[in-house]
Amino acid sequence: MPFRLSDTGGDCRDSDGTVEGAVPAVGPMGEVYVVWAGPLGLVFKKSLDGGSTFGKDRVIGSMPGGWDFSVEGLDRANGMPVTGVDLSNGPNKGTLYINWIDARNGDPDVFVMSSRDGGETWTTPVRVNDDPLKNGKVQFFTWMSVDPIDGSVNVIFYDRRDTEAALTKLTLARSVDGGRSFVNHKIAVPPFACDPRIFFGYYSGIFAYGGRVVPIFMHFGGDKKLAVSVAIFRFRPGTQDRID
């Protein structure tokens, strides 16, 4: 039987005043974690009985600039949060991660923060994209996967750090130290120009398992038609060493 999860609601305008982007994750002992974005910022909730009941809403962070923001060449973009848990047997087992985008530095950047006590306390947000701070370049549409074998944190995002106007590339960022730092790896797709006349979609995706990381994403091909592609990265588990 469905029941309401959020204590505080939002409007129905599908923008910053709307509660949106709820992504659940399950911990190693069956804990259920959910984070979403809304007018209060990043809101966190958890259940210790398999999702039958949840505690009160907790605001765990702000989202300067909101989750809904403008990007040249797109009808809209977003930085809504993604939730993940380390289910590996490594040193960070049980760590909870949140991945999102906001404009606290003046332009949209990708962030990850983590909790090692079930969401009671959180680290300071770590900036995932490693281009110069406050350079006016845009990152958008992030998604995250925590490898259940090696515990790595893997994040995909669209990236305009070294392009102009609506030209866009993609980046994979990977952490092997529990989300404390990230190494950025370019995804080998030629830069493409977004066309505001064609609906681009709102989401990318990524999955990681045993050092193999597979991002999936939309992009415009050489025929200027929208395509969906995947990239395959193979890392030595628990490291940044590529073996492909």
How would you characterize this protein structure?
The chain is built from no helices and 19 strands. By secondary structure, it is mostly beta strands. The mean pLDDT is 96.
- What oligomeric state do the depicted chains represent? single chain
Percentage beta strand: 35-45%
Distance between the termini: 47 Å
Number of strands: 19
What number is the mean pLDDT?
Answer: 96
Tally of alpha and pi helices? 0
H/E element string? EEEEEEEEEEEEEEEEEEE
Largest sheet: 5 strands, antiparallel
Helix content: under 10%
Decide which structural class fits the backbone: mainly beta
Rounded to the nearest angstrom, the radius of gyration is 18 Å
Uncertain segments: none
Structural shape: globular
Q: What attributes characterize this protein structure?
A:
single chain; 244 residues; mainly beta; four-stranded antiparallel sheet; 19 strands; 0% helix; globular
Write the layout of secondary structure elements.
Layout: E1 20-26, E2 32-38, E3 41-47, E4 58-61, E5 68-69, E6 77-78, E7 82-85, E8 96-102, E9 109-115, E10 126-127, E11 139-146, E12 153-159, E13 167-175, E14 183-186, E15 192-193, E16 205-209, E17 212-220, E18 226-230, E19 233-234
Antiparallel strand pairs: 1-2, 2-3, 3-4, 5-6, 7-8, 8-9, 9-10, 11-12, 12-13, 13-14, 13-15, 16-17, 17-18, 17-19
